[in-house]
Amino acid sequence: DAGVIQSPRHEVTEMGQEVTLRCKPISGHNSLFWYRQTMMRGLELLIYFNNNVPIDDSGMPEDRFSAKMPNASFSTLKIQPSEPRDSAVYFCASSLGRPRTPLHFGNGTRLTVT
Amino acid sequence: DAKTTQPPSMDCAEGRAANLPCNHSTISGNEYVYWYRQIHSQGPQYIIHGLKNNETNEMASLIITEDRKSSTLILPHATLRDTAVYYCIVRETGANNLFFGTGTRLTVIP
Lengths: 114, 110
Prior knowledge:
A: mainly beta, seven-stranded mixed β-sheet, four-stranded antiparallel β-sheet, globular, B: 110 residues, mainly beta, 9 strands
């Protein structure tokens, strides 16, 4: 079990550029979550998917953010255009999707927008 | 609207038991108590969860009061590697997502 794999681990980009964060969930897990962590706001749920379908995207900050899950083994979170206030650590997590099953988190992508 | 209240920080001597409290006075009958921790530069890690009975696994024990309005996470023999932020979360039975509060920063002191 390789765990949830996120890439890249670190991303530095200039304001206005497009940023794509990637996540590979644990095999067999059918729920996937994107979180963002900052010092000011802590861990925030951005969006989650069940069986590749977005269920709740109410945490997505604005239209510049979009997330896709084209298949059960891959998801992306895209920011276009990026802004300095998007600087944060972005975590992906997956779970079996059944009630009370725990979420397993990746080690995150640290995004810095200059 | 925070569902849980935790002290912002605690210290514990290495080798001693670490007891982390959590208040969840508005918990409803179908909500579970979950504990996660986050070690520096890593993603949150699941520790344990329970409804109303005390629970124990290889990582920790969870003690829930009879009225379910508070709970305590116990690390029986804290090590330096247990230094982390510990999150107490209340989650509905059928809910698939998790909402994190501010947690307790536990520092294990040599």
